[in-house]
# Entry
Amino acid sequence: MELFGVKLLGLSALTARKALLTIVFTVGLIGLRFLLLAIVGAFSRNRPQQRFWARQTLSIFMAVLLLLSLLSIWFDDPSRLATGVGLVSAGLAFALQKVVTSLAGYLVIIRGRIFRVGDRITMGGVRGDVMALGFLKTTIMEMGDPTGEPLSIWVHGRQYTGRIVTVTNDKVFEEPVFNLTRDFPFIWDEIRVPIPYAADRARAERILIEAAEEVTAGAMVAAQPHVREMKELYEIQLGSLKPRVYWRITDNWLELTVRFIVDDRSSRDFKDSIARKILAAFDEAKIGIASATLDVVAFPPIRAELAGPGAPKA
# Structure
């Protein structure tokens, strides 16, 4: 085919047939994927983890099947296929480095069981729950940070901020991925309470322990099976789950730190309940919360002079 004397690539019968087969196969595989996803959703309605792995396996299988179908349609000569694969690989290595790395990251996430949909993770500097895992990116519902950092996080607790963040999968090769709920969905948290040295320290410690035990009793029971599982899987001893108080001597007060175990998703609610019980018990026991004070022990001599003629001097 020529246009204004310029020879253009023509559409032969063989090319048209291959293009038509490509469209038919693609549409058919997309329809088959939606059908299989509907079947998986129906049989795993109340089993989110099984549904997640079934969808991931189905997505990989359909992608491989589509790739093989396209190769069988367009490359009927093995020598041409080898040449084409070589050229495509060279182009991908140069122009699509991030895409290839993200795809490799996806395989590492799946094969290494780094996280799955529903897990609470920190990845790429983003904290939150995994909403979706794709070939190239992970979608996270962001949560706040109790430390108050970074400054863009205005929620000072492990609760949703409302922002949905997308992180590319290549981040698994660049920095650690923290998973808070995969094998052990509990964390140890702390509340620090400063009290004056003159206060009843033993009673203050009992108040902290009793408040923490009352609030976290259910969490301690629920965590026991996970503790045994962690020991079987990783040979790690997590120690006692009972609350404990640690003392630290400072220049101004005695700092009591109560350490307790909580469900990560309810950490802020647990801390709120414990803090309320501690304050109520402190008020009843007449134990105050210490604060920074300055004691003045002596005054320097003061000399004042009145200005003007005839003014007396002091």
In short: The chain has three domains: 12-95, 120-179, 186-285.
